[in-house]
């Protein structure tokens, strides 16, 4: 290297040396402002911090063991001082933690739940969402644990933040035995969710006839309306549950103030013609002979509450269907209707919303 080259690199090397030797501006060797330095804390404070950390770890281990049904491990952790009523600190997303009993109830570990209750677990403790052990057991379908918790004075009327409760959770899934247990425990039948839905409404949507019998015999109010103005009878008609519809009608149930939609048929996704409401995937379309796969579609016809009282959910005869359908409101319109005209029912102007169906009138 030439003398000129050496002279060029000497000042650069000097700068690098100075930079490396200088203390970092981000950390000067002293504790950061606001940081905790255990070496400068009193011994009793350090011991307290370590105790809290160990306590949290012990409690979380207990909850994980209860969740997994490891009853012997649960007993050992309780003997070591774990708190049976502690909440899990390792959160799933932003959801509030749950207790060991809540997890055992949700997972169906009856033996573990019995041990926790014997060791002082609070049967009615709720987390930030309002979840309780009873709700978890009912929602998961664990009838034996529901019975166990009710025998230990679990509150059947505890509610979640959204207004739901154990009975509504069981009703949604048609868990008849749990619905019966909760009803016998005097669970409130008129509780509603944030949308105004009752247990009887959910049962009417799904067509759970035996569960409906239980609630009706207990005196459930058949004429409560949700926030859309629909009653249990409205839903039984909308979702074609004729058995429940009859039970409700026998108890003088009425339609709500909202428009009711009555399921009247299905459509072939190929030729768009109406087929029987009983048509299922794998059947052949009687019009175009296509085998129904994904294209089989349900279609509904909107009627008013007054009209619904005289309307029955009977499949239309395709040979007599002589109109077209407005795709938006699914009402029949004249066969001569054309794109660009207005629907006489929903006032929408037909673009792609007009569906051809049936045969021209003879």
Any overview of this molecule?
Mean pLDDT is 76; it is low at 21-35, 45-49, 299-322 and 357-362. Helix 2 runs parallel beside helix 4 (100-107). The protein is mainly alpha-helical. Strands 2-1-3 form a 3-stranded antiparallel sheet. A 3-stranded antiparallel sheet has the order 5-4-6, with no helix packed on it. Strand 1 (260-267) and strand 2 form a beta hairpin. It is built from 14 helices and 6 strands. Among the domains are: 48-155, Serine Threonine Protein Phosphatase 5, Tetratricopeptide repeat; 158-258, Ankyrin repeat-containing domain (Serine Threonine Protein Phosphatase 5, Tetratricopeptide repeat).
Average pLDDT figure: 76
User: How many helix segments?
Assistant: 14
Look at the structure and name the CATH superfamily of the domain at 48-155: Ankyrin repeat-containing domain
Per CATH, the architecture of the domain at 48-155 is Alpha Horseshoe
Beta strand count? 6
Largest sheet: 3 strands, antiparallel
């Amino acid at each position: 290297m030439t003398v000129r080259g050496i002279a060029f690199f000497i000042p650069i090397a000097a700068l690098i040396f100075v930079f490396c030797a200088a203390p970092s501006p981000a950390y000067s060797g002293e504790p950061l402002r606001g940081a905790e330095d255990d070496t400068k804390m009193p011994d009793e404070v350090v011991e307290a911090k370590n105790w809290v950390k160990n306590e949290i770890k012990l409690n979380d281990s207990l909850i994980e063991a209860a969740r997994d049904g490891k009853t012997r491990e649960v007993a050992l952790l309780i003997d070591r001082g774990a708190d049976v009523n502690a909440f899990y600190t390792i959160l799933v997303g932003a959801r509030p933690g749950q207790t060991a009993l809540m997890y055992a109830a949700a997972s169906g570990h009856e033996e573990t739940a019995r041990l926790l209750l014997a060791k002082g677990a609070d049967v009615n403790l709720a987390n930030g969402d309002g979840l309780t052990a009873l709700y978890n057991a009912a929602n998961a379908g664990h009838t034996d644990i529901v019975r166990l918790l009710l025998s230990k004075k679990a509150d059947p009327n505890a509610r979640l933040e959204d207004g739901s409760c154990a009975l509504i959770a069981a009703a949604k899934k048609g868990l008849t035995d749990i619905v019966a247990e909760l009803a016998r425990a005097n669970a409130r039948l008129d509780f509603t969710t944030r949308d105004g839905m009752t247990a009887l409404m959910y049962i009417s949507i799904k067509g759970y006839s035996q569960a409906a019998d239980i609630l009706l015999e207990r005196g459930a109010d058949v004429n409560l309306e949700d926030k859309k103005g629909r009653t249990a009878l409205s839903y039984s008609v909308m979702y074609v549950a004729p058995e429940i519809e009859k039970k409700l009608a026998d108890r003088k149930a009425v339609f709500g103030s909202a428009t009711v939609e009555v399921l009247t048929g299905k459509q072939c996704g190929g030729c768009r013609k109406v087929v029987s409401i009983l048509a299922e995937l794998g059947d052949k379309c009687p019009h175009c002979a296509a085998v129904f796969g994904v294209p089989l579609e349900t279609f509904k016809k909107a009627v008013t509450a007054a009209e619904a009282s005289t309307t029955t959910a009977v499949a239309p005869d395709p040979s007599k269907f002589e109109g077209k359908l407005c795709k938006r409101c699914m009402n029949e319109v004249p066969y001569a209707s054309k794109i660009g005209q207005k629907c006489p029912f929903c006032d929408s102007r037909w673009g792609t919303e007009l569906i051809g169906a049936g045969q021209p009138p003879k």
